[in-house]
Automatic annotation (TrEMBL):
Chitin-binding type-2 domain: residues covered: 194-255, 287-340
PROSITE patterns tied to this protein: CHIT_BIND_II (PS50940)
GO-annotated cellular components: extracellular region
Listed Gene3D superfamilies: Chitin binding domain
Signal peptide: 1-23
UniProt keyword terms in alphabetical order: Signal
DNA damage found in the keyword field: no
Source species of the chain: Halocaridina rubra
Protein name: Chitin-binding type-2 domain-containing protein
InterPro entries referenced in this protein's UniProt entry, alphabetically: Chitin-bd_dom (IPR002557), Chitin-bd_dom_sf (IPR036508)
Annotated GO MF terms: chitin binding
Pfam families registered for this protein in UniProt: CBM_14
């Protein structure tokens, strides 16, 4: 039997199973991947209008690890990310679905377990209890909040008669609405708006999606293309400059719901260097190329560029499939590329 035929048969069987399967991860586009829970990877295939879920069990020696909104995979336990047991023996919450928990037996053995129907895992009590009785995290202020990775449920915090800040029962949004941090809204409302300069304002302004990306505005109009901060830095909206991430108040960064479908959003500065993946790859040395601060083309290789600062430079790398455009001053798609 041909390999292609085997694959088609496998996908057909998976499709039959998928018709019966539901989970925390919702397929929003084909050729994407997500995690239903720590033990189940979801492969999304089919059409853009109606992608189909194919749940895959990661097995006993691997867990599902999410690397972005549309990418995930089954990884060894020691690379388990949010699903990695931090203590054993113990029971830990599943970061993807409150109806599951992780049974941690040892550093090399853990299992993803589903609660009984109508129950969810309570991290405080360390067991599955009725969904309406699941204790949310300790309240820190009055208002609404959520500990549900799917954004389908929420709870409130209020002062009781003893003046103790107390959580309410768990409430559910009316489908298909999702909780945005303050109320239940259509899923499309979770997606951030495209950046627009504030009316009549001058200066630098943080992007609506990426905190290491900023726009320059003059009299309320954007001048030039948006720019990326140097590696390891974020844009400080108050000081209107890039600073090391540890020196920037994260509340000034874009606050995007974890349930927002950001797969179609342009992220030109996300992971804009390989040095974060391969420490030591980036060099820092005196250079004569830097007549001004900012990006400078790298001769003979459009996949990287120099970032100049105070007469010195670091070698930066564009994300995969992007090229550095000397006119725009940042990495762009080949279809928009004018030369380096």
């Amino acid at each position: 039997m041909k390999k292609s035929t085997v694959i088609l048969l496998l996908l057909h069987v998976m499709s039959l199973l998928a018709n019966l399967a539901t989970g925390a991860y919702t397929c929003k586009a084909p050729n994407t991947f997500g995690c239903d829970n720590c033990g189940t990877l979801v492969i999304c295939q089919g059409t853009t209008a109606n992608p189909t879920r194919y749940p895959v069990n990661c097995g006993s020696s691997k867990v599902c690890v999410k690397s972005s909104d549309t990418q995930a995979g089954c990884k060894p336990l020691n690379d388990g990310g949010e699903c990695k047991c931090t203590d054993s023996p113990s029971l830990q919450k599943d970061p993807f679905d409150i109806k599951y928990f992780i049974m941690c037996l040892s550093n090399t053995a853990q299992f993803s377990v589903k609660c009984e129907e109508g129950k969810a895992f309570d991290e405080i009590k360390g067991k599955c209890i009725a969904t309406t009785a699941v204790n949310p995290p300790t309240c820190t202020e009055t208002g609404f909040s959520s500990n549900d990775p799917s954004c389908k449920t929420y709870y409130g915090c209020y002062y009781d008669q003893s003046n103790v800040l107390t959580p309410t029962e768990i409430f559910s949004c009316v489908e298909p609405n999702l909780f945005d941090g303050s109320e239940c809204v259509p899923e499309a409302d979770l997606i951030p708006n495209a950046f627009a300069c504030p009316p009549a304002e001058d200066g630098g302004f943080v992007d609506t999606v990426e905190c290491n990306k900023f726009h320059t505005c003059s009299a309320g109009a954007e001048t030039g293309d948006p720019l990326c901060c140097p590696k390891g830095e974020l844009f400080d909206a108050n000081r209107m400059r890039c600073f090391p991430a540890a020196q920037v108040d994260k509340s000034l960064c874009p606050q995007i719901s974890p349930c927002a479908d950001t797969s179609a959003l342009e992220k030109t500065c996300e992971d804009n260097t390989l040095s974060s993946l391969f420490p030591g790859l980036t060099t820092f040395a005196p250079g004569v190329l830097c007549s001004k601060d900012g990006p400078v083309p790298y001769p003979g290789d459009c996949t990287k560029y120099y970032w100049c600062s105070s007469g010195r430079y670091t070698i930066q790398f564009c994300p995969p499939k992007l090229l550095f455009d000397k006119t725009k001053g940042y990495c762009t798609l080949p279809s928009d590329f004018s030369g380096c």
